[in-house]
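Forgive a beginner's question, but would it be possible to get a protein, spelled out as residues, together with the matching structure tokens, please?
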Amino acid sequence: METIARRAMVMRAFSPSAPIASKALFAGRHEQMSELVNIAYQSGQHAVIYGERGVGKTSLARVMKEVFDTPNSWTSYYTCSSGDTFASIWRGILSDFPMTEERLRAGFASGTSLRVKSLADLLNNSEPTPNEVRRALELLGDVDGTAVIFIDEFDRPVDSATRAQFADLIKILSDQVAPITLVLVGVADDIDELISEHASIQRALVQIQMPRMTREELIEIISQGMRTANLSFHRKFAERVVRISQGLPHYTHLLAQHAGVNAVVNEREKVLEGDFEKAVKSALNSVSQTVREKYHRATYSNRETLYKQVLLACAMAEKDDLGTFGAPDVRDKLSEVTSRRYEIPSFANHLTDFSSLDGPRGGILAKRGTQRRFRYRFIDPLMPPFILMKGSAEGLVSGVT
């Protein structure tokens, strides 16, 4: 029974499958948290949190909602869907805020009656304008002082007018110095991908890019989680987890969770370096089915090929600040994987297949640039760590893990 309880502690301490929602379990991102606090309490400013998938944008937003949820402020969190519009987003947000309306009692009864409704009822128009939303939000500010509203998955709505209306609303709120802060969160390489009308609101919209986490931040995730689970850990174990995670907290949580469970099952209070290999093997089945299927399609063959080794070399290749790499980077790592020197023509077709738009092995890499100067980038940032885990489990590579 004690083992089950300790195992449950480990499972709660690390969260690879869902965003962190409690600041007690959150680690890292101190700079971004501080910047959001400054924005929320500065009149006329709003924020947009953007970055690639898997870097922890939603976790940051959910934890900051908890931070801002004080007696002197009101917070709301809304997650967009592909079918959302400007109207549906704001009806969803404002319906969470009840308001009390006083009315005279009917007939001969004295006094007043109380009727509760939400701020969404103030949007009489089926297609509210930015100004109508602004008026409802200003009422919210009058009641609670400061309001911080997080709108996650902002890149998902496909309605072309939605982003333009949000840009108008942000400009209006900024000009009116309303005590409201909007925080838009979405997957994007740059701000242009989230707000097409950004030029007119640049002074009002502070851009917070979420880069991949640093080595120190990932170590902090492991330290805090293990401490919560009443476990200690070997430093070499943490270093190997950090290397394979490539800055993505999802894999740090995933491997630390499996390693912690393995230590508990073996009645230990310390996670050892040897738990890393066991964690990798058990964690492989926990990775997204989409990632696993794409990897299988890209590398499967009835005969001996280099597809698996080339894809592993791509995952190991040195990346620039944009996450791209070239064929020479792959060549150097392929030599490490195979213990044999391959020149670029030997695997050029493999890179072409991985970056094909319609081939069975395509959809893995995006290709940019011109002939002989192509740069490649993994379309799904969650793919490279999975490839490294597969390579480690199959004995193809050990240096990076």
User: Anything to note?
Assistant: The radius of gyration is 25 Å. The chain has three domains: 30-209, 214-286, 290-393. The chain has a mean pLDDT of 86.
